[in-house]
UniProtKB/TrEMBL annotation:
Pathway: Purine metabolism; IMP biosynthesis via de novo pathway; N(2)-formyl-N(1)-(5-phospho-D-ribosyl)glycinamide from N(1)-(5-phospho-D-ribosyl)glycinamide (10-formyl THF route): step 1/1. It catalyses: N(1)-(5-phospho-beta-D-ribosyl)glycinamide + (6R)-10-formyltetrahydrofolate = N(2)-formyl-N(1)-(5-phospho-beta-D-ribosyl)glycinamide + (6S)-5,6,7,8-tetrahydrofolate + H(+). The record marks D145 as: Raises pKa of active site His. This is Phosphoribosylglycinamide formyltransferase. GO terms for molecular function: phosphoribosylglycinamide formyltransferase activity. Belongs to the GART family. Keywords: Purine biosynthesis, Transferase. Residues 2-182 form the Formyl transferase N-terminal domain. It comes from Reinekea thalattae. Its EC number is 2.1.2.2.
Length: 210
């Protein structure tokens, strides 16, 4: 059984799907702790209700990004996790933090990376008249939203879509996508070697599709 630490900043709907999948046995792992950089978020309540440790490390209480990341790293290391799962964690992480967990940390991002790293992904897809939008799970490397891609989910963009309607549809696919990838991690089927992601020892040149 793999040990998972999940980092969040907000509502935690992706976290909930991971907690549920672990509880059902669909993921061969256990969420041992959930850490939020913001206090009073719903995700922390979800963690408590599922019996996981729920911690807040409030980034506003730290003078520098380095100081916050160092505190975060220490708390995560205390749990000796096999994997660190970023699920709506909205802080940019320092390279030394990322490198400490290299190959053990994944993120879910609401766009079809490499398109639209950063914020406002759905509006940018609409503005570009894209035919599809979606979400991507990738290994985290020091380049923001730039680590090797693992798996994507996609939806068709409708002419009537707003950023909000699109976000809702993409989020629903995220809830399928993330448990699937985390289960593959927990089965030791995904690896990061020399900045290349592998699935079952085969390099992932094109992201796997949900
Ligand atoms: C999700 O859409 C996730 O892809 C996004 O935040 C949302 C969190 O929702 N993550 C990022 O934008 C990371 N850059 P949730 O708290 O309900 O899981």
């Amino acid at each position: 059984m793999k040990r998972l630490v999940v980092l969040i900043s907000g509502g935690g709907s992706n976290l909930q799907t991971l907690l549920d999948a672990c509880q059902r046995g669909d993921i061969n792992g256990q969420v041992v702790a959930v850490i939020s950089n913001r206090p009073d978020v719903r995700g922390l309540i979800r963690a408590e209700q599922a019996g996981a440790d729920a911690l807040c490390i409030d980034h506003t209480e730290y003078d520098s990004r380095e100081a916050f990341d160092e505190q975060l790293r220490q708390h995560i290391d205390d749990y000796q996790p096999d994997y660190v799962i970023l699920a709506g964690f909205m802080r940019i992480l320092t390279a030394s933090f990322v490198n400490h967990f290299l190959g053990k940390m994944v993120n879910i991002h609401p766009s079809l990376l490499p398109k639209y790293p950063g914020l406002d992904t759905h509006q940018r897809a609409i503005d570009a008249n894209d035919s599809h939008a979606g979400a991507t799970v990738h290994f985290v490397t020091p380049e923001l939203d730039g680590g090797p891609l693992i798996m994507q989910s996609s939806v068709t963009l409708e002419p009537s879509d707003t950023a909000a309607s699109l976000a809702k549809r993409v989020l629903a696919t995220e809830h399928q996508l993330y448990p699937r990838v985390v289960q593959l991690l927990c089965q030791d089927k995904l690896k990061l070697i020399d900045n290349i992601a592998y699935y079952d020892q085969t390099p992932i040149h094109v992201p796997l599709q949900l």
